[in-house]
């Protein structure tokens, strides 16, 4: 299988633990996507409707129990416990709903079941409930998977070359500036991306996930973009009626703050999957799909790996085989790692440490030394 398969899983993991910033190879790998698929047990590609629904049901039951505890018992607690109790509710509910978000994301990849209509129905309902335009994001996200690592065509968290970084970046390249940037990204990044394509691929005209004639979409997709907007409008009206009935503060406490945490985790997870000092990006002269798919990194979020249905620590396998259900991705990752060798990257740095490090180290991309074009690496010296 060539040089990529010579290093054992244990050797690769040990070396990455010792030096998580060691660059992954940027050359064309000595294996193909077919080679990788052959070593994965065939059952890993099977989608079980019953098993997939079991994750939806369990997540929603936990979410409802958290809601019931908060609304039925918190007001009976003496102050200040009646107020302080909301903090663990917000965090726990936000994490559980992030898992719901991940399942809807699987539906967009047709990884939920063998039935496209079932996948789209479940994904539409779950994502709309979390104020995500399901079909709009499904199509832009698929384009991200088709163009991962490309500086010209990738859809999200596309790094800028040095010549295109904003004039104020140097004023934010310090601890206070990084704190401000991270807070803005985690709270506003997702809605700004959906509405205005912030951090997304540049287009020659206004691009938005809510606009059916946006350049993000082709003519066959535009009707479903309208349907996504209907889902958002329906959920928004439902929240408005709840606010009228229960009060704005009630809606914010029960739904609004957990949703902010969902959005924050979504941005953080995506950012850390594709932003790492060891990962290359490619221009049109070097990019190909397999190298782009391998320009991702698996992360360890501890117990949250399970809560997030392992989208965090099996992301490399997800980019290689996006229609594989999440409950088989761990087994598939274990199977392909010996073949991937140095082309597989796992960084077990705690996510909160990694977030700070990447914000500091990954400011723009450029080729090494005097090289022109081709392979680009993250740099931080403005």
TrEMBL record:
Region Disordered, annotated ranges: 1-29
GO cellular component: membrane
Transmembrane annotation, as ranges: 53-74, 86-105, 179-196, 225-243, 249-272
Annotated pathway: Lipid metabolism
GO biological process: lipid metabolic process
Residue ranges of every copy of the Fatty acid desaturase domain listed in the record: 85-345
InterPro entries noted in UniProt: FA_desaturase_dom (IPR005804), FAS_N (IPR021863), Fatty_acid_desaturase (IPR012171)
Domain Fatty acid desaturase N-terminal: residue ranges: 24-66
Subcellular location: Membrane
Gene Ontology molecular function: oxidoreductase activity, acting on paired donors, with oxidation of a pair of donors resulting in the reduction of molecular oxygen to two molecules of water
Pfam families according to UniProt: DUF3474 (PF11960), FA_desaturase (PF00487)
Keywords: Membrane, Oxidoreductase, Transmembrane, Transmembrane helix
Family: Belongs to the fatty acid desaturase type 1 family.
Name recorded for this polypeptide: Delta-12 fatty acid desaturase type 02
Originating organism: Crepis alpina (Hawksbeard)
Lineage: Eukaryota, Viridiplantae, Streptophyta, Embryophyta, Tracheophyta
Encoding gene, per UniProt annotation: Fad2
């Amino acid at each position: 299988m060539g040089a990529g398969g010579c290093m054992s899983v244990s050797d690769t993991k040990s070396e990455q633990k010792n030096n998580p910033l060691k660059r992954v190879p940027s050359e064309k790998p000595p294996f193909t996507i077919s080679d990788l698929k052959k070593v994965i047990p065939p059952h890993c590609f099977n989608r079980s409707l019953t098993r997939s629904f079991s994750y939806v049901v369990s997540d929603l039951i936990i979410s409802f129990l958290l809601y019931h505890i908060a609304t039925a018992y918190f007001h009976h607690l003496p102050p200040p416990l009646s107020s302080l109790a909301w903090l663990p509710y917000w965090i726990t509910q936000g994490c559980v709903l992030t898992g719901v978000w991940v399942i809807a994301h699987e539906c967009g990849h047709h990884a939920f079941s063998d039935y496209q209509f079932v996948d789209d129905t479940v994904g539409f309902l779950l994502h709309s409930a979390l104020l995500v335009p399901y079909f709009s994001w499904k199509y832009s996200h698929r384009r991200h998977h088709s163009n991962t690592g490309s500086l010209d065509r990738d859809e999200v968290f596309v790094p800028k070359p040095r010549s295109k970084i904003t004039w104020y970046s140097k004023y934010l390249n310090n601890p206070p500036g990084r704190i401000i940037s991270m807070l803005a990204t985690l709270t506003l990044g997702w809605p700004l991306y959906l509405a205005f394509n912030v951090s997304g691929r540049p287009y020659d005209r206004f691009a938005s996930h809510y606009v059916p004639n946006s350049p993000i979409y082709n003519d066959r997709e535009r009707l479903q973009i309208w349907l996504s907007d209907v889902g958002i409008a329906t959920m928004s009206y439902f929240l408005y009626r709840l606010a009228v009935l229960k009060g704005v503060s009630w809606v914010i406490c029960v739904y609004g703050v957990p949703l902010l945490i969902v959005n924050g985790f979504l941005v953080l997870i995506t950012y850390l999957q594709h932003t790492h000092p060891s990962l290359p990006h490619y221009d049109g002269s070097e990019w190909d799909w397999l190298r782009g798919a391998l320009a991702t990194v698996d992360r360890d979020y501890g117990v949250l790996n399970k809560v997030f249905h392992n989208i965090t620590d099996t992301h490399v396998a997800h980019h290689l085989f996006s229609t594989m259900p999440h409950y088989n991705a761990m087994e598939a990752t274990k199977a392909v790692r010996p073949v991937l060798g140095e082309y597989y990257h796992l960084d077990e740095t705690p996510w909160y440490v990694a977030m700070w490090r990447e914000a500091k180290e990954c400011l723009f991309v450029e080729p090494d030394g005097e090289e022109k074009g081709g392979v680009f690496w993250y740099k931080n010296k403005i």
